[in-house]
Structures are given as C-alpha cells and as structure tokens.
Amino acid sequence: MLKKNQELLPNDQKQNSPRLKSESSLLVKRDGGVLTLCFNRPQVLNALNKELSLALLEAVQEAEFDPAVRCLVLTGEGAGFMSGGDIQLFGETLNLSPQERKARFHTFIQHVHPTILSLKRMPKPVIASVNGVAAGYGLSLMMACDLSIASTKSSFSMAYSRMGLSPDGGATYFLPRLVGQQKAMSMALLGETLSAEEALACHLVTKIVSHDTLETETKQLADKLAEGPGYAYARTKELIQSSFDDTLPHHLYKEENSFADCTASYDFTEAAMAFLEKRLPKFNGR
After folding, report:
1. Would you list the DSSP string of the chain?
2. Cα–Cα distance measured from residue 115 to residue 141, given in angstroms and rounded to the nearest whole number
3. By the number of CB atoms within 10 A of the CB, which of 68, 80, 167, 170 ranks highest?
4. pLDDT tens digits, the chain, 286 residues: what are they?
5. Sheet containing 133-135: which strands, arranged edge to edge?
6. Span between the terminal Cα atoms of the chain, in Å
7. What's the maximum distance between 2 C-alpha atoms anywhere in the chain?
8. What torsion do the CA atoms of 252, 253, 254, 259 make, to the nearest 10 degrees?
9. Residue 197: left (phi > 0), alpha (psi -120 to 50), or beta?
10. Which value, to the nearest 10 degrees, does the dihedral of the CA atoms of residues 115, 146, 158, 186 take?
11. Residue 255 zone, left/alpha/beta (φ > 0; ψ -120 to 50; rest)
C-alpha cells in the first residue's frame, strides 16, 4: 500500500521519479526497476469501475513493453486489495433490457480481460501485494500475478455466486490450478471466504506476513526480482506457463532451446564471471 503523504506528480514527471503520480483511480510509483500500481478507490475497497479498469489496462500494457520496468507490483490503497466489480456499476444497468445489459457487460469485460493476458504475457515478474479484501475480479487479478504476498489481515473470496454471476478474469482457469478442482468448486459455488492462513494452506498465496510489514516485505521481494537475471526470468515464466498444455517431449525441447538461449545472454556471462571472480553479479536483464 502506498503512503498517503507522498507527493503526487503530473504525467510528464513519471519516468525518473520514485514518487507517485496520480491517474485518478490508479496511483503509479516508479522506484528503480520496480513499478507499483496502486488501486485508488479506498472508499469502496477499490471496487472495479470503468475508469479504474481502463487506467489499469493502460498502465499494465505500458509496463509490459517498457524495458526499464524489471518487476511490476499490484496493490490497493486503504483496507482492500480489490473487492471485485463496483455494485454501483451493476445498479446502473438495472433499467436496461436484458439484451442491452448483456451487451453493456460484454463491452466492459472486453476492457478487463486484456489486463489479465498482459500480466501473464509480460516477460517480467509480477507481484500481488494483498493488503486486505481480494474478492471477485480482485482475486482474479491476484491469481494472474506470478507471486502473491499477503497481509495477515487479508481475505479471499470468489464472491460471484452471491451476485448470481459466473466468474471472469480467468478465475476458473487459475483457481483449480492453484488449489485443486474440488476446493475451486467449493470457493466458486459456495462463495466461501478464506483467511490469509487458509489461503496459504491451500497454496492460493505465496507468503503471508504481518500487516505492518507488508509494504517492507513487498519492496524487498520486488527489489530482489528487479535486480535479478531478467532474461532468464522471462524464459522461465514462459516455460512454466506453457507446461500445462504441453507434452513432456515437446517441453523438454523447449527447455533445451531456452537454456541454450540463456547462455548467449549478458546475464549468463556476468553470472559466470562473477562466480569466478568471487563477487556478486550485476544483472541488466538482457
């Protein structure tokens, strides 16, 4: 969670400053190779509306193709990570006909799902720093990240069934892969809420820490990843994600090519030289 007393900056100063700039519903902070996107609708636990969905999509896609970004962090302002879709948005469609409402939400989700694809596709690590409620699409966003570090005050829920909805945001793709099919069914059909400890026990999150140390622990993890071998990270992320739909012989072939490609990178040369010279390597991600 970003500190509220930090100065907000205009767009043209965002590239080189470690401080924040405002994008209304989204706060953006660049600190070295780490880019942090903070959902900024704390009065509704950062519920997703059109403004936030579009700002998030733009920021995530920029991060995907920005070579200066070595690690991306998603978090929320206030007491929530993201509580799902904004109920106010749902209410505004109740006076529409069923077909008009269906068309409206088709359009809305078409602005939401590209964010998930970008998070999974980008060749750099993505961390979810979960400071509170992660429900509905907020849980989908968290599961689309590569690592998730959660406060002991956080909670997790699919939430969709409570609103008579089936899940979106890749939730039905990610959840059974993380927690197994029966646990995923239980969470999705019953809408049960998990504590941080329960989420850790079923492998829904990577790590839990005290609420007071979440920001520090997140920074330490993000800095470590940003300073790491970015080229190898990108290839590793791609290999792990593609393994679910691959055969073993074909995957071994891809591992062979990826390993060989990595040996031609600067990061490999630097790591080997550093080992021989008994010093720490200085990776540049290429």
Report:
1. ---TTSPEE-GGGTTT-SSEEEETTEEEEEETTEEEEEE--GGGTT-B-HHHHHHHHHHHHHHHH-TT--EEEEEESTTEEE-SB-HHHHHTTTTS-HHHHHHHHHHHHHHHHHHHHHHHHSSS-EEEEE-SEEETHHHHHHHHSSEEEEETT-EEE--GGGGT----TTHHHHHHHHH-HHHHHHHHHH--EEEHHHHHHTTSSSEEE-GGGHHHHHHHHHHHHHTS-HHHHHHHHHHHHHGGG--HHHHHHHHHHHHHHHHTSHHHHHHHHHHHTTS-------
2. 9
3. 80
4. 554 333 333 333 444 433 344 448 999 999 999 999 999 999 999 999 999 999 999 999 999 999 999 999 999 999 999 999 998 888 889 999 999 999 999 999 988 999 999 999 999 999 999 999 999 999 999 999 999 999 999 999 999 999 999 999 999 999 999 999 999 999 999 999 999 999 999 999 999 999 999 999 999 999 999 999 999 999 999 999 999 999 999 999 999 999 999 999 999 999 999 999 999 999 998 8
5. 80-82, 133-135, 155-157, 193-195
6. 30
7. 71
8. 80
9. alpha
10. 140
11. alpha
d(Cα 218, Cα 127) in Å, to the nearest integer? Answer: 8
178, two tokens? 């993380």
**Spatial separation of the C-alpha atoms in residues 286 and 278, rounded to whole Å:** 22
> Encoding tokens for residue 200?
């850790």
Closest CA to 234 of 274, 272, 286, 273: 286
Tell the residue number behind the tokens 């043209």, with chain if given: 12
CA 17 to chain CA mean position, Å: 22
Q: How many CB atoms lie within 10 A of CB 16?
A: 7
Q: How many other CB atoms are there within 10 angstroms of residue 275's CB atom?
A: 11
